[in-house]
Amino acid sequence: MTAMRRFEHKTMLVTGAAMGIGGATARRLADEGAAVIVADCNEEAAQRKVSEILGSGGEAWFQHVDLASPSSIDHMGRAVADRVPCLHGLVNNAGILQTASIAETGDSDWEPQMTINLRAPALCTKALLPLLKKGPGHIINLSSEGAFIAHENRWVYTASKAGILALTRNMAREFVGYGMRANTVAPGWTVTEMHFLESEDPAAEKARLESLERQESVIPRLARPEEIAAVIAFLLSDDASYMTASIVHVDGGRVTS
Ligand SMILES: NC(=O)c1ccc[n+]([C@@H]2O[C@H](COP(=O)([O-])OP(=O)(O)OC[C@H]3O[C@@H](n4cnc5c(N)ncnc54)[C@H](O)[C@@H]3O)[C@@H](O)[C@H]2O)c1
After folding, report:
1. Closest Cα to atom 1, ligand 1: which residue?
2. How far apart, in Å, are the Cα atoms of 60 and each of 29, 40, 162?
3. What atom of ligand 1 comes closest to residue 72's alpha carbon?
4. Residue 87 belongs to some domain of the structure
5. Is 82 part of a structural domain of the chain?
6. Which residue, by CA, sits nearest to atom 40 of ligand 1?
7. Ligand 1 centre distance from Cα of residue 28 (Å)
8. Which of 157, 175, 189, 196 is catalytic?
9. Where are the alpha helices (H) located in 176-224, listed in sequence order?
10. Is ligand 1 within 6 A of the CB of residue 217?
């Protein structure tokens, strides 16, 4: 458990918090004293994350949401408002990755990635805005190194992640009067379920990725989800009180070197 307790008496919501970067973020925020709302569509995995946090002495609960559905996001907003008076942080983390070349991408292939990766952060922010204004609550939106460099067969995904940059800037401007800050975190390639859950042997694939050399990065390895979570926690904390509309690359130097 981390020694810092920057989020005592604070409540924060993390989307896609059942696993991966969102899971590590939920754990980190709870370890620092926050009550964490674990928002996800995968109830089983999310309840495991809640149990893990409760088991380590933290506070957390599950909130179902399907981020592809505006009515589900609205429902989440109402359910959260029934339970807490305000929010001190929102991490728009959930995202999905589908691969196809430009030529192979059909019209309907745009929908899941654009709605979950780009529209949902906007809709979640809007649904939770009354609570965020009262916090005040700071916002972190997850982009990707892919918003800055071309990646083969990921053009819809990377376009959705580039849109996050504009979304965050507008949030920063519009919400500054409420004492809210909004920042983008752009992770590099990180060892999460996104990259190993669907493989034939997830444990072996996870181990392979953890030991993979990545020469394109200055630090020649993949990130651990905890390394992204630590930066998200910093940006949500008062330690980052003069940071808003920033893009923070957490990619071992991949994009900026
Ligand atoms: N892993 C990487 O290499 C990497 C790199 C750059 C950016 N990112 C970004 O970081 C964020 C987290 O990625 P990750 O690798 O931890 O992903 P992950 O696949 O490991 O976890 C994603 C989580 O989001 C949830 N989710 C997916 N669709 C949902 C929906 N419709 N409604 C509610 N919940 C939903 C999943 O259940 C899961 O818990 C994403 O936005 C991703 O694009 C990841």
Report:
1. 190
2. 10, 13, 31
3. 32
4. yes
5. yes
6. 95
7. 17
8. 157
9. 193-196, 202-210
10. no
pLDDT in tens for each of the 257 residues of the chain?
A: 567 999 999 999 999 999 999 999 999 999 999 999 999 999 999 999 999 999 999 999 999 999 999 999 999 999 999 999 999 999 999 999 999 999 999 999 999 999 999 999 999 999 999 999 999 999 999 999 999 999 999 999 999 999 999 999 999 999 999 999 999 999 999 999 999 999 999 999 999 999 999 999 999 999 999 999 999 999 999 999 999 999 999 999 999 99
Q: Look at phi and psi of residue 213 and say left if phi exceeds 0, alpha if psi is from -120 to 50, else beta.
A: beta
Number of compact structural domains in the chain: 1
User: What is the best residue among 192, 231, 255 to mutate for testing ligand 1's pocket, by most ligand atoms within 8 Å of CB?
Assistant: 192
User: Domain limits at 133?
Assistant: 11-188+223-249
CATH of the domain at 131: 3.40.50.720
Residue 201: Cβ within 10 Å count: 10
The minimum-distance atom of ligand 1 relative to the CA of 146 is 6
Lookup result for tokens 């918003």:
147
Q: Catalytic: 178?
A: no
* Summary count for the chain: helices (H), strands (E): 9, 7
Residue nearest to atom 7 of ligand 1 (CA): 144
Q: Which two tokens stand for residue 69?
A: 């559905």
| Total Cβ atoms within 10 A of residue 60 | 24
Task: Name the pTM for this structure.
Answer: 0.98
Instruction: Note whether residue 201 is domain-resident.
Output: no
Whether the CB of 222 sits within 6 Å of ligand 1: no
